[in-house]
Amino acid sequence: MVNRMVTPSSGRVLIDEVDVAQQDPISLRRSIGYVMQSGGLLPHLTVEANINTIPRLLGAPASSDRIHHLMESLELDPALGRKYPYQLSGGQAQRVGVARALIFDPNILLMDEPFAAVDPIVRHGLQEMVAQLQRDFHKTIILVTHDFSEACFLGDTVAVLSVRAHIEQHATPREILTHPATPFVEKFIQATRPLKVD
């Protein structure tokens, strides 16, 4: 809905107080960074070429210096720029996916289950990286996850959706944990591992 791939059945989606339905869908989609579950890296391109894919397609390739600086900020050794996706660990591939999403400096970052395919230790490191990324780059990050504790750790606000994609509750993690709005939210919280409220 944010990028107009799906039309909302009711309500509106606003970005900077502008209804996305009033925006050119191609321009809108080009202004958003995407990080997918599997990283979505192109296997025939090096890491550096993968990161530079979108700027190159937009006619403004990023410099190697900019790519290396971004890689370093995401705890990736710039020497990995010459490697191919099959030569990377799962965590490295996800970080490259994040670098590719950030290289053209989008205002919004959409992350669709970005940590689902990695082990818990790598997952925790990637969660810490996203939290640091938000502090460093000040981006709006929309993160889709089935892990409620992850949503609470990373989100300023959390939207709990039902199976039919109906928003059951949209609030701070504390508010959701202490005052579930619907029986669905209450059952959802009970089904997750215990969380502490700060």
UniProtKB/TrEMBL annotation:
PANTHER family linked: OSMOPROTECTANT IMPORT ATP-BINDING PROTEIN OSMV (PTHR43117)
Domain ABC transporter: 1-189
GO terms of molecular function: ATP binding; ATP hydrolysis activity
Keywords from the UniProt entry: ATP-binding, Nucleotide-binding, Transport
SUPFAM superfamilies: P-loop containing nucleoside triphosphate hydrolases
Native source species: Corynebacterium matruchotii ATCC 33806
Matching InterPro entries: ABC_transporter-like_ATP-bd, ABC_transporter-like_CS, P-loop_NTPase
Lineage: superkingdom: Bacteria
Protein family according to the UniProt entry: Belongs to the ABC transporter superfamily.
Pfam families named in the record: ABC_tran (PF00005)
Name assigned to this protein: ABC transporter, ATP-binding protein
